[in-house]
């Protein structure tokens, strides 16, 4: 059997199915997790299906997680979606089930679980879920609830179809999901929406962003700035893609200070491969979009220096 066929066989075999995604969820994490959950509920109404994890924050309008009794993991099938490695999985009980499946589109640097289905060339994990549904020969039935969140997942991870991961197949999947009357225009509007405070944060970025001679842009958003602008660390994510709009910026990094004083690091690139650098700082991700951590200003300086070296090597080629 193919891996998708094995996954479907496991879904059919288990009565309780618990689906996790990654921490600090983005639309693809929620879309793939909840989309799969809704498809299983629609296809097998007798099964108990749960979507678990931390608060979905600003994406609560898309879907929410469900609190569950840890005892439910006993004898359950557990599936993770869009979670590249175990530290990124939201929910500490993910390994307490009877069988664990990983479905993801990040590089498979940590092939955890009993069964892995990882396609790094896919635009999103949501696209992978759509493919599994379409190839299931009717064993998985798509419905409007699933189509809505899966569409949001694809839109989110392709940057509204602007990233190079977008393929003709990606557009075909999105078109299929739109046939379910999901009000795609309202989804797009909501995903593009920011608060007034986030708009002021955009202004702060353009005022404070540094761009060096290697075309590397960088910004630190510390706790004091977050409090002054009345934005949370999670809301700062809305500006991560903004430096890429600037002419003369090849790659960029944004450091967001967390409550414990450390920094969440957001890497983005128009060419230089940055996920190997992210791995050196307790992170990882896609070749052109990754995340990591920095303990202090010294590590921030180290990351900027290393990123500048990558950019310089890239332009010299």
From TrEMBL:
The superkingdom listed in its UniProt entry is Bacteria
Q: Which residues form a coiled coil?
A: none
Please list the residue ranges annotated as the DDH domain.
17-154
EC number assigned by the record: 3.1.-.-, 3.1.3.7
Entry keyword set: Hydrolase
Sample GO molecular function, one term:
3'(2'),5'-bisphosphate nucleotidase activity
Q: Which residues form the DHHA1 domain?
A: 214-311
**InterPro entries, sorted:** DDH_dom, DHH_sf, DHHA1_dom, Oligoribo/pAp-PDE_c-di-AMP_PDE
Q: Which Pfam family is one of this chain's hits? A: DHH
Q: What is this protein called?
A: Bifunctional oligoribonuclease and PAP phosphatase NrnA
Species the sequence originates in: Latilactobacillus sakei (Lactobacillus sakei)
């Amino acid at each position: 059997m193919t891996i998708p066929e094995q996954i479907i066989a496991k879904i059919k075999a288990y009565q309780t199915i618990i689906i996790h995604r990654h921490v600090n969820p983005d639309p693809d994490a929620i879309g793939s997790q909840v989309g799969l959950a809704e498809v299983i509920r629609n296809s097998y109404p007798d099964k108990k299906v749960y979507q678990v994890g931390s608060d979905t924050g600003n994406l609560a309008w898309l879907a929410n997680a469900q609190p569950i009794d840890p005892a439910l993991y006993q004898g359950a099938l557990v599936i993770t979606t869009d979670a590249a490695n175990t530290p990124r999985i939201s929910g500490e009980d993910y390994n307490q089930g009877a069988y664990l499946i990983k479905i993801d589109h990040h590089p498979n640097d940590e092939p955890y679980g009993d069964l892995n289905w990882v396609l790094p060339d896919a635009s999103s994990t949501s696209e992978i879920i759509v493919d599994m549904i379409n190839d299931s020969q009717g064993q998985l039935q798509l419905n409007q609830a699933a189509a809505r969140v899966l569409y949001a997942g694809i839109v989110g991870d392709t940057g509204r179809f602007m990233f190079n991961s977008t393929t003709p197949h990606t557009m075909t999947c999105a078109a299929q999901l739109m046939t379910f009357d999901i009000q795609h225009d309202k989804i797009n509007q909501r995903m593009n929406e920011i608060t007034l405070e986030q708009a002021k944060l955009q202004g702060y970025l353009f005022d404070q962003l540094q761009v060096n001679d290697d075309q590397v842009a960088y910004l630190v958003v510390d706790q004091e700035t977050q409090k002054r602008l009345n934005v949370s660390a999670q809301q700062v994510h809305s500006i991560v893609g903004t430096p890429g709009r600037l002419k003369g910026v090849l790659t960029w990094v944004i450091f967001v200070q967390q409550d414990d004083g450390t920094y969440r690091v957001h890497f983005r690139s128009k060419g230089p491969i940055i996920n190997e650098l992210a791995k050196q700082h307790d992170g990882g991700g896609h070749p052109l979009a990754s995340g990591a951590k920095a303990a202090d200003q010294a590590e921030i300086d180290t990351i900027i220096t290393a990123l500048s070296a990558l950019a310089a090597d890239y332009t010299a080629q």
